[in-house]
Amino acid sequence: MDAIRTQVTIERPPAEIYEYLLDVANYPEFLDHFLVDWHLTREDTYGIGAGARFKVDGKDRFAWGDLTLVEATKPVSITLRGRGGRFNRIRTVYAFQFIPNATGVSTDVVLDVERDASAPFDRMRDAFGGRWSDKRRWRRALGRLDGIITRGEGHGKRVSVSGGPRKPATNSPLR
Questions:
Q1: DSSP-based three-state secondary structure for 8
Q2: Which of 42, 41, 45 is closest to 23 using CA atoms?
Q3: How many domains is the chain built from?
Q4: How big is the chain by its Cα radius of gyration, in Å?
Q5: Are 26 and 35 in contact (CB under 8 A)?
Q6: Fewer CB within 10 Å of terminal CB in the chain, N or C?
Q7: Does any domain span residue 157?
């Protein structure tokens, strides 16, 4: 798997950052500069099993991807898995690690993004600038995450469930 590692120091305790990232509906706030058209995969956006589908901004017609929160160890790490690309053949793992500094006031957030690009076209994309571009985008995303958590600035649009609030129909027998 092809791995990209990005790191940022955020002036908050690990538990606060962990709680923010445990809600998948928050992800578009700091990722909307390159991941757009977010759709939730279920109503509950918090915790294990929560997921979303999105489109990678660009000219690629096979740019859809998804992610699902599969593992969370409080307040140490969060792991998300997903697929993307043509026929959803590229497996991706997003692993957040929260390392508290000695002072306990700030936290080093380390993000490892691993892509399993096994098809020749996908390997070619990574070889000709795709990997560099991805690393730049993820570095900017963690910078935006820092701004949102520490200073409350730069919030993008938060994703919600389409169709409005869920309630039984007026004449439904399922009240």
A1: strand
A2: 45
A3: 1
A4: 17
A5: no
A6: C
A7: no
